[in-house]
Amino acid sequence: MTERTPSRAQEAPARPRRRDALRNREAILAAGRVAFAEQGLEASLEGIARQAGVAIGTLYRHFPNRLALVEELFAEKFTYLLDAAEESAAMDDAWQGFCTFLERFCELQACDRAFNALAAARLPVHTVSGQMSERVKDLGTSILHKAQQQGVVRADITREDIAFVAWSLEGIIQATRTVAPSAWRRHLYLMLDAFRAECAHELPEPPLSPEQVDQTIAALECGENDT
What we know:
Layout: H1 15-39, H2 45-52, H3 56-62, H4 66-89, H5 94-111, H6 113-120, H7 128-149, H8 159-176, H9 183-195, H10 210-226
Helix pairs in contact: 1-2, 4-5, 4-7, 5-6, 5-7, 5-8, 5-9, 8-9
């Protein structure tokens, strides 16, 4: 009886190679998570590959560009923030919902420089993160309006004013990170008191327009790229 040579389909699958690929991917994600949290979105991809123990070409085989790696790393955090926004929007007590939403957002901002930048950035709308970010912003607007309708947040606050919370906290978070890492909570609640309707006084300047917010974000992004 003539012996048959095994076809490629009958040969044993290259399991070690697949295990190596999975291990490399996990190593890249672990290194990227640390690098982005500590250095922000401009963390070196070469440095991430080196920390993961792989060649830069291996990183690009798994993640063809920076955005692909960012999407993979931050999907979980955007999901957490979206869940927090939906939970806050559903609260009967609108003041509690308003405070909970901002505190959950700031918790993520405080522990991750890259997320801090992502949350304020104009993410591509075709990406999952971009779509989730837009949904979070819409829910944040609903939370604000509900609190104003209940008379607990001052009526002259706009969606654009909420951006001040993130922008001001960023500097405090960085300045106190190694000295008093929870100091941002004190500043947040000082700001929340300023949002209370019972504390309202006439403001000397009008709110930023959406266009001005976009211009400010663009300027902040340029500043980060220059550092």
